[in-house]
Amino acid sequence: MRDADPDLFVAVAHACLLGESPFWHPRERALYWCDIPGHRLQRFEPAGGALAHWDFDTDVASCAPQLDGRLLLAMRDGLWRFDPASGERRLAAKPPYDPAKERFNDGKCDPQGRFWVGTIYEPRDAAAATLHCLTREGLKRKAGGVTVANGLAWSPDGATMYWTDTKAHTIYAFDFEPHAGELSRQRVFAQFAPRAEGQPLDDYGGRPDGAAVDTEGCYWVAMFEGQRVLRLSPAGEVLREVLLPVRCATMPCFGGDDLKTLYITTAREKRPAAELAAQPLAGCVLGLRVDVPGLPVNVVHV
Hints:
Strand order of the largest sheet: 1-24-23-22
Strand content: over 45%
Number of helices: 1
Largest sheet: 4 strands, antiparallel
């Protein structure tokens, strides 16, 4: 395995089981992210080093800031509006699936303030996961035909939406109609080779997981088990490869006042003991300064 990028640094040394859904809160100057199987929401303030968390009794898969100061959490038991100050949690939408087989996964807000969230079909034996959008009228199904929904992001002009099926190693692009939030012209944006039977992990490029977009319209994607993050052009071409000191990156996001710090969540859940011994930073949040800033987080208005 090649050496990790020397410019990487450890942003948060506390290790999650499966870190996911990071976003930078510009008003609080803080990073939020989830530990899905740890049933925990995390918050970190780089300026002072303060680390806080909130524990729940079920999986918390993704999070987004709301206009009113609360957070919207996508959890196994539904979508919830959560007040970090009081700890109060109020149901926004019931889960549209059987929680014994499926749960919410990657979720993000679109530029118009609607919250989009995909699911993961946990048996992984059928493409039964779906994509939903929370509007003022409720939760609406928007797409399906995948197994592990990930990679939600929008282009800088808001005309393209990205969505990934991690199990299929495929990132899709859609034309995005902003007024009604309708999707059309689904096509393959990027596709990666699956791991062959018996193929060593050191020779495997990984499968696309969470993602973020920068101001040049480039799509930064975490390659789970590939020990890298890729920057793809708007045409889907690999422009940059960031090698990591851990096997499983899960999602990047842009943070800091200038949005030029790339934060990368990672995972250690169910990894082999020898791998964890060799990669003690697994589960931590990594950081990298980049030249092109990212897009700011979209805020939930519904």
